[in-house]
Design goal:
Aspartate Aminotransferase, domain 2; four-stranded antiparallel β-sheet; globular; single chain; binds pyridoxal-5'-phosphate; Aspartate Aminotransferase, domain 1; 16% strand; seven-stranded mixed β-sheet
Length: 351
C-alpha cells in the first residue's frame, strides 16, 4: 500500500526513473574468484548508509545521505510541497526552512516563540489541510532551546496524518549530553521512525563531528518517502572524501565525548560571564548561546567586531536585542568575555 503517493508533488510521483543500486560490498564468498571489479560508480553512499543503518537498527533503504542535512531539507520540500501547500515551523528558527520552502513556491507559516522555543500547541493550531511539512529544530538554532521527549511525544501524537514531521537534530550529540547533565530526556527520535511514523530525523556531521566544510549529513525516514526524495536529488552530490571522513567519524566516540563535555563546560563559562553583565541568557542545549542584551544587539555585535570577535545579532530572526554566540575554545571564550566586559565598562580586554 502506498502511504505517500497522494501526498507527494507531481514531479516526485511521476519522475520514477533511475534508482541507483549500490554495488555489492563484495561478491558471494566463492573462493578465489570472489573479487569484484568495480566499473560502476557508487552514487548512493552505500557504505555509509549501511553503517548508519546498522548503527540505528533500521533498513538501509530508510537512510539517505546528502551533501549536508540542508540538502535533504530542500529535497523534502521539492518532494512534498507545491505552491498550493504550506509548511509550519516556529519564528526565530533555522533560516534554511524559509529558503527551501519558498524555493518551491510554497508558504511557510511561522508560529511565535514560547519560552524562547517552539510552541508545539501553536504549531498544531497552524496546520491545515494544505500543510505537508513541519520543521522542528531540536535543539533550535538560534535560541538553543530543546523540546524534551514527552513534549515531542505529545506533539507527534496530535499531528494529522497528511503531515510529515522533520525532526532536525543537527545538534543531537550536544543535546544528549546537556540532557544527561540536567536529568531531562532528549527524544529517542529514531524510535518514531522504527514505529513507522511520518517522521524524518535529520542528523549531520557538520557540528559535533566538525566536518561542516565537507558537506555531509543524512536523514532517516519512511522508506517510500525516502525513495521519492531520492528521485529529486542530483546524482553524485556527495564527495567520496566526505563519505570516507564520515565513516571514520562514526567510530571516533572519544572525539564526541571530548567535544560535548568541553562544550558544556564552556557553555557554563559563557552563561555566567554574560549573566554577570546583566544579559538574559537562554539555557542552551547546543554549541552556541543566545542572550538578550536588552538593547540593539547589532550595535554590540559591531563593537565586538572592532575588538576582534564576531557574533551573530538576531534582528533578521525578529529578535533585535538578541545575540547568538558560538561556544568557542576556552581561550576564545575568555577573549570574547573580556571584550564584552570592556564594552559594558567593566574592564580592559586582555589580548
Ligand atoms: C537546525 C540546523 N539544521 C541543519 C543545519 C545544517 O547542517 P548541514 O551542515 O548538515 O547542512 C544547521 C546548521 O547551521 C542547523 O542549525
Amino acid at each position: 500500500m502506498s502511504r505517500f503517493f497522494d501526498l507527494v508533488s507531481r514531479p516526485a510521483r511521476e519522475m520514477g526513473g533511475y534508482t541507483p543500486k549500490a554495488p555489492p560490498a563484495r561478491q558471494a564468498a566463492n573462493g578465489p574468484q570472489a573479487r569484484l571489479i568495480r566499473l560502476a560508480p557508487d552514487d548512493d553512499c552505500g557504505a555509509l548508509r549501511r553503517k548508519l543503518a546498522a548503527q540505528h537498527g533500521l533498513p538501509t533503504e530508510q537512510v539517505m545521505v546528502t551533501a549536508g542535512s540542508t540538502a535533504l531539507l530542500s529535497l523534502l520540500c521539492q518532494t512534498l510541497l507545491t505552491p498550493a501547500h504550506n509548511a509550519v515551523t516556529s519564528q526565530c528558527s533555522f533560516v534554511v526552512y524559509a529558503l527551501a520552502v519558498h524555493a518551491v513556491g510554497a508558504r511557510l507559516i511561522e508560529t511565535p516563540l514560547l519560552n524562547d522555543g517552539f510552541d508545539s500547541q501553536a504549531m498544531l493550531d497552524a496546520m491545515d489541510d494544505n500543510t505537508r511539512l513541519v520543521f522542528l529544530a531540536n535543539p533550535n538554532n538560534p535560541t538553543g532551546t530543546m523540546l524534551d521527549a514527552s513534549a515531542v511525544d505529545k506533539f507527534l501524537a496530535r499531528v494529522p496524518g497528511h503531515v510529515v514531521v522533520v525532526l532536525d537534530e543537527a545538534y543531537h550529540e550536544f543535546a544528549l549530553h546537556f540532557a544527561s547533565l540536567r536529568g531531562t530526556a532528549y527524544p529517542n527520535s529514531l524510535d518514531y521512525v522504527r514505529q513507522g511514523a511520518s517522521v524524518v530525523v535529520l542528523r549531520t556531521f557538520s557540528k559535533a563531528h566538525g566536518l561542516a566544510g565537507l558537506r555531509i549529513g543524512y536523514g532517516v525516514g519512511p522508506e517510500e518517502l525516502m525513495t521519492y526524495c531520492a528521485r529529486m536529488r542530483n546524482t553524485f552530490s556527495v564527495a567520496s572524501v566526505a563519505e570516507a571522513a564520515a565513516l571514520a567519524a562514526l567510530d571516533d566516540h572519544e572525539h564526541i565525548e571530548r567535544v560535548v563535555a568541553s562544550n558544556a563546560g564552556q557553555a557554563s563559562v559563557l552563561a555566567d560571564g554574560l549573566s554577570s553583565l546583566g544579559y538574559r541568557v537562554v539555557p542552551t542545549s547546543a554549541n552556541f548561546i543566545c542572550c538578550d542584551v536588552g538593547e540593539d544587539a547589532g550595535g554590540i555585535a559591531e563593537r565586538l567586531l572592532n575588538e576582534g570577535v564576531s557574533v551573530r545579532p538576531l534582528r533578521v530572526w525578529g529578535a533585535p536585542s538578541c545575540l547568538r554566540v558560538s561556544i568557542g575554545s576556552p581561550e576564545q571564550n575568555r577573549f570574547f568575555l573580556s571584550a564584552a566586559r570592556k564594552m559594558a565598562g567593566r574592564e580592559v580586554p586582555d589580548r
